[in-house]
Amino acid sequence: MREHEVRTHRSDENLPREQQLAWRIAEVAAERVPVTDAVTDMVINRVIDNAAVAVASLRRAPVEAARGQAQRHPFTPGATVFGVLDRVSPEWAAWANGVAVRELDYHDTFLAADYSHPGDNIPAVLAVAQHTGRSGEDLLHGIVTGYEIQIDLVRAISLHKHKIDHVAHLGPSAAAGIGTLLGLDRETIFHAVGQALHTTTATRQSRKGEISTWKAYAPAFAGKMAIEAVDRAMRGQTSPTPIYEGEDGFIAWLLDGPAGRYSVPLPEAGEPRRAILDSYTKEHSAEYQAQAWIDLARRLGAARPDLRDPANVRSVVLHTSHHTHYVIGSGANDPQKYDPTASRETLDHSIPYIFTVALQDGEWHHERSYAPQRAARPDTVALWRSVTTAEDPEWTRRYHSTDPAEKAFGGRVEIELADGSRVVDEIAVADAHPLGARPFERADYVRKFRTLAEGVVPDAEVERFLAAAERLPSLSADELGALTVDIGLPPVTRGGIF
Fold first, then answer.
1. What highest taxon heads this organism's lineage (predicted)?
2. CB count in 10 Å sphere of residue 422
3. Are 27 and 151 spatial neighbours (Cβ–Cβ below 8 Å)?
């Protein structure tokens, strides 16, 4: 990897294009490098993972609305949409599928200087591949680039610090992935990356306070904008330049300003793109920083059933990282995180709620655990309101560590009981994490798909999809349409302008 130094530049400095971050991203995307076997296997895993969480959300309102919008834009050849046989214009397929993948907050993650769900690249790259008649091998290369660029940006540039939504790294990465897929030149990808960043920057209010259904739409919007940006760039249209470094650009006004300095790691020429191997998926349908806490809570509840009764518990303090405390913990100062009538999206970002339910139930379920009647249970509400978080400098340091062996997303729980005794335990990473108690392998991804597809997707369709996904690198252009699931959903006809 080579570190690319990034800072703002005055206009009169006339920063050469070849020194701009968008150009370096384009250089990586324009080079077709062989994909290792380990990376190929992980791409297949994540295509299965995305499909698993998408099929489980097909009848949820945000997904139905997005699918209904997409179905108003039929196109030939077009791209597939989860749940139906229709083919639609690729940007609208990316929109509908992106919402389906993101709705349950249940697919892969990478956390470093910022947050990301790099699997959000897949809907946009796949839609363009299907529409343009590309092969499975082309798709593989495009997805690998999308993961590489997003993860490399997330390693170096914090958006959350400035309250910018994390999808600002997704627009450029999806544009780069599409550029690799299509074999575009550096100049075209450069302008596509710049336009994608410019059009996908927004505040992170979508993840604050009363969290709305837009949370699922935000990455889908970034993927849709990336496709449109590539289309314009291919037609010769240019982007604001320098998009990152300009004196009125992204860094100058939305991030650290003229004093800001970043060092972005990007692959050298010819270097294999391995970033996807540093990402990790979710065993549980919840914010990633909650994954390890769910596993710890389940373990504690099984060993000490008395902890499930609020009458026995005086207080529960989760000592954890800065991000966990301030984003999904009591440090966010969001009263909604303790509200039994809060939306599913809000409860998904409340570690006090999640820890409580996992402790009491000994499980975490993508539907049952969020049900309104479950959140309103009196004993749960009583225990829930005794749970707070506190930032611990050591857990913050480990959260940001670049050493995979010590990087951690959990923390230490201290429970004070009514009789004056205490229970203390800790967990560093989720059980499903590569360094966890039960790291996810192909069989786990397949089981996750089968579990979430049960009662939704016919068995024959489950087997057909899995067989296609596991052959992804060798699929012909005609076979790429198999990377979807059709369950014959009726057209969505209600509401809207389209």
1. Bacteria
2. 10
3. no
Token reading at 255: 């991030």
Residue indicated by tokens 């529409």: 131
Structure token pair of residue 403: 């050493």
Calpha distance 450→461 (Å, rounded): 11
Residue partners of 459: CB distance under 8 A and separation at least 6: none
Residue 85's domain comprises 2-278
- Band of residue 290 on the pLDDT scale cut at 50, 70, 90: very high
CATH number of the domain encompassing residue 80:
1.10.4100.10
- pLDDT at position 368 over 90: yes
β-bridge mates for residue 391, sequence order = 320
Q: What is the pLDDT of residues 463-474, one digit of tens each?
A: 999 999 999 999
Q: Residue 133 is inside which H or E element, if any? A: none
Rounded distance, CA 109 to CA 449, Å?
17
Model confidence pLDDT, tens digit, residues 187-224:
999 999 999 999 999 998 887 778 789 999 999 999 99
The predicted pLDDT at position 210 comes to: 81
- Which of 242, 258, 278 corresponds to the end of one domain? 278
DSSP symbol at 195: H
**Structural domain total, the chain:** 2
Query: What pTM was estimated for this model as a whole?
Result: 0.93
User: Which residues are paired to 426 by β-bridges?
Assistant: 412
Q: Where does 157-208 have alpha helices with state H?
A: 170-182, 186-199
